[in-house]
Amino acid sequence: MKLTFLGTGTSVGVPVIGCDCITCTSNDPRDRRLRTGLLVEHGPHTLQVDISPDFRRQALRNKLRRLDALLITHCHADHVFGLDDIRPLNFRHGPLPTYASESTWRQLRRVFYYVFEAKNTGGGLPQLIPNTIDGPFKVGGIAITPFTVLHGGGEVTGFRFSDGTSDFAFITDCNEIPEAALAQLESLDLLVIDALRLKPHPTHLHLEKSLDYIARLRPRRALLTHMSHDIKHAEASRHLPPGVEFAYDQLQVEL
After folding, report:
1. pTM of the predicted model, to two decimals?
2. Number of domains within the chain
C-alpha cells in the first residue's frame, strides 16, 4: 500500500487567516497544512479517506485521475465539503462507491440534501453509491475494519487497513479511543492519529495524550495528523520519541 497525506491540518488549515504566529509565517513547507485527507493506493486501486474543502487543489497537485472508493469518518465541514468536487471523476468513471456509518449518512443527507432529493435537478450533482458501514468490508483487495472513536459528544469512524502483508490504521478527530477500538489497533505497522495541539482540547487529542495511546499500542511507526498552528514542525519534532513523527502535506509512505 502507498499512502499520500493530502492534508494534515485542522479545520482552519495552516496558515490561519489573519494570523502572524511563527508557524503561520514559517517558510518550512511542512508548516503549510491543507485540511485533512488521505489517499490510499493498492495496485490499480485508489481509495480516499475524507474529502475536505481543499480536495480540488489536492487532487490537481497529485494528478488524481480516478477513485475507486471514498471513506468518510464523519460529517464535519473540514472532512466532507469537497464532496461536490468528485463530479469530474463521475463524468469519466461513473458513480463513486462511498462508505460511511449510518449516523454519518443521516447527516450527509441533511447537509447535501440537493444530492439525495430527486426533485433537485440541473447544475451537475455528485454521483454516489452509498454503502452503510456495519462491519468489516473490502475495497480493491484491502480489508478494512471500521471502529468508533469519540469526538466530544459525537462519534467518528476510524479505519484499519490490511493488504495481507501490512496493516495501518487512521484516526482523526477524537479525544478518546474506547477499549473496543483499542482492541482493533494491536500489531500495527503504522498508526496515523489525531494530535491537534500541545495543550488539552475538549474534542481532540493533544500531543501528550496521543503519545500515551501510541505508547500503549506500540505500532512499528506512528504519524501525527490533523494539526493546528500550535505545532511548528521542526521545533516540535525534537520532542518526539523514536518511531513517532509529525506527518506533513504530500508525505508519501510505502507499506
Report:
1. 0.96
2. 1
What is the domain extent for residue 211? 2-254
Helices (H), 135-217: 179-182, 207-217
Taking only the tens place, the pLDDT of each residue in 52-110 is 999 999 999 999 999 999 999 999 999 999 999 999 999 999 999 999 999 999 999 99
What amino acid occupies position 8? T
> pLDDT tens digit string along 151-210?
999 999 999 999 999 999 999 999 999 999 999 999 999 999 999 999 999 999 999 999
CATH number assigned to the domain comprising residue 236: 3.60.15.10
Q: Contacts from 202-210 at CB under 8 Å and sequence distance 24+?
A: 202/152, 202/175, 203/151, 203/152, 203/173, 203/175, 204/10, 204/151, 204/173, 204/174, 204/175, 205/174, 205/175, 207/231, 207/236, 209/175
